[in-house]
């Protein structure tokens, strides 16, 4: 017992030290809460769920220990202890208490989910993200503070993981303006991918012939890791990108350097697959 407590203590120190080195990495202890407009709610749900689970755990472990001690076999006792079966009140309690616990978890999860998935009526920017084997295309639609309208794109290439340092700097990078409402339109050109920015605490599948959405407002400038989170073929592990959250001025400078236009469904493996075809598999 003392040994495992000591181990847990060491693990806690190591893990919290890592979290401080890299603000983008929280490990299992949520550190920096405000990466996006959604992260405080998600962090609270996570932490409070752990507190609730721990309280239930402590109560359950306590009752188990108490039973072991209070009802242990005494000196001179023989035979079976008194047998107890078909105790209706107890069985009702065993059914109701877990149901209530699940209902409480469900209620708060649903509440947070509805809140973060509420679409922006007038987003400041819409970015269309295509997953493709094994990189990404981004189409930016944005009206700058000075009125310039952008309809530009960038196309990413697969990371080349050599085992050497410095690959991160070569990854395709998605730029986001800090403090702006952003709608992500998530699509796929070929197979199912998943758009994941761990520091944003959000991840969503990209499904051929479908559009999924993420709505968020980045609150902190910085560079964050992004990756595909759905095994999508041989080089899935090299489907990496950076997310640069920058000030508006730097953002428009970046957009100025991109090509005008839009990389749409015409570059999909099956350009004729549309939302309504998903259940029937399209016309290929
Ligand atoms: Cu992928």
How would you portray this structure in words?
The structure is a single chain. The protein is an alpha+beta fold. It folds into 2 domains: 30-69 and 84-118; 125-273, Cupredoxins -  blue copper proteins (Immunoglobulin-like), CATH 2.60.40.420. It has helices spanning 2-21, 39-70, 88-116, 167-170, 248-256, and strands at residues 125-132, 135-143, 149-155, 173-177, 182-188, 193-197, 202-206, 212-216, 222-228, 240-246, 259-260. Residues 13-25 have low confidence and may be disordered. It binds copper (II) ion.
Instruction: Decide which structural class fits the backbone.
Output: alpha+beta
> Per DSSP, what share of the residues sits in E-state strands of 2 or more residues?
15-25%
The ordered H/E elements are HHHEEEHEEEEEEEHE
Total domain modules: 2
On the 0-100 scale, what is the average pLDDT? 86
**CATH superfamily caption of the largest domain:** Cupredoxins -  blue copper proteins
Which of globular, elongated, flat, extended, rod-shaped describes the shape?
elongated
What are its keywords?
284 residues; 33% helix; Immunoglobulin-like; 6-stranded mixed β-sheet; alpha+beta; 2 domains; binds copper (II) ion; elongated
Topology at a glance:
Blueprint: H1 2-21, H2 39-70, H3 88-116, E1 125-132, E2 135-143, E3 149-155, H4 167-170, E4 173-177, E5 182-188, E6 193-197, E7 202-206, E8 212-216, E9 222-228, E10 240-246, H5 248-256, E11 259-260
Parallel strand pairs: 1-5, 4-10
Antiparallel strand pairs: 1-2, 2-3, 3-11, 5-8, 6-7, 6-9, 9-10
Helix pairs in contact: 2-3
């Amino acid at each position: 017992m003392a040994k495992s407590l000591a181990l847990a203590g060491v693990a806690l120190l190591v893990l919290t030290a890592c979290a401080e080195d890299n603000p983008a990495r929280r490990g299992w202890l949520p550190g920096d809460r405000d990466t996006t407009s959604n992260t405080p709610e998600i962090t609270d749900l996570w932490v409070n769920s752990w507190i609730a689970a721990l309280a239930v755990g402590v109560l359950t472990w306590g009752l188990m220990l108490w039973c072991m001690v209070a009802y242990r076999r005494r000196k001179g006792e023989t035979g079976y202890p008194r047998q107890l079966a078909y105790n209706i009140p107890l069985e009702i309690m065993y059914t109701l208490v877990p149901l209530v616990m699940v209902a409480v978890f469900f209620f708060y999860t649903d509440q947070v989910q509805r809140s973060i998935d509420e679409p922006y009526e007038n987003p400041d920017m819409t970015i269309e993200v295509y997953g493709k084997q094994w990189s990404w295309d981004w189409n930016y639609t944005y009206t700058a503070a000075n009125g310039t309208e952008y309809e530009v794109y960038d196309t990413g290439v697969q990371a080349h993981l050599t085992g050497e340092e410095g690959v991160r700097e070569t990854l395709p990078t998605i730029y986001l303006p800090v403090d702006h409402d952003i709608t992500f339109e998530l699509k796929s050109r070929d197979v199912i991918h998943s758009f994941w920015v761990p520091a944003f605490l959000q991840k969503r599948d990209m499904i051929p012939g479908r559009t999924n959405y993420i709505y968020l407002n980045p609150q902190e400038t910085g560079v964050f890791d992004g990756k595909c989170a759905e095994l999508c073929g041989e080089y899935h592990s090299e489907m990496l990108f950076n997310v640069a959250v920058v000030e508006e001025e730097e953002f428009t400078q970046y957009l100025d350097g991109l090509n005008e236009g839009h990389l749409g469904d015409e570059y999909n493996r099956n350009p004729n697959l549309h939302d309504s075809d998903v259940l029937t598999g399209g016309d290929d």
